[in-house]
Design goal:
single chain; mainly alpha; two-stranded antiparallel sheet; 15 helices; elongated
Amino acid sequence: MDNDIVVQARLAAEKAGGYLTTELFDKYRDKDKTVTWDTYNRKHKIGFKEFLKIANIPSKDEFQLKENRTKAISNLKLLNVTQGYIDKQGYEKEGFSPSWDYISEHFGIENLAEVAKVNLKNRYLNIDSMISDLKQTIKRLGYIPTRKQYGDLKLKPSLSTIANNNMTWEVAMAKAEFNAKGAKTHDKVCNNERCYTQFTPVNDELFCDSCYKQIREEVIKKIQNYSLSDVRKMAIDLVLFGNSHQKLDEYRRL
């Protein structure tokens, strides 16, 4: 095959948006360098699909399939972030394109969920992703719930999902680095953004001991730049409310 026609076809495909049809070939070809497709075809007797394959140019259907696959993966990831899992009802509610049925027919929901690394409703690609979700859920909750409390709150992963992975509540919590027995002592999870430490509060503490000391040092450094009026306000707060974690958290955010 004449290499010049391949080069011109690839240039035409770029102008057309990434793929070619016979109409797009004729529309975007360099008319000084390339004949029409019908003229070329009459001389060389080659089908357009075969030509595209040799020239390594996608057809419209191939291009759209690839584009839709990329869009579908992005949609599934977005839904997984907002919902914690993917399912047909949630996907269709968002009005995503391509449709759930299109994904199922052309790519397979389970196959694409694995590629996108997202969770199907009540199902996880692996135990690690389920435990990761449990850890994040308990962190957002902020305290250690009893098994019943967790079930009543209808959180994800559900108790049935945990059981379906051959795990007890206690074992799943241990894998998420929490002690389920802490529910009896009303344990909390440290409120500091990146800390997952479980602790038993004496009063209304928000932070584990380590984070409390760290935050206290941050506030002490900030005080050096406080105005006199800010220092007076802090002194009044300490007299009225004491050195509470809540007040300390307010000061560090000033």
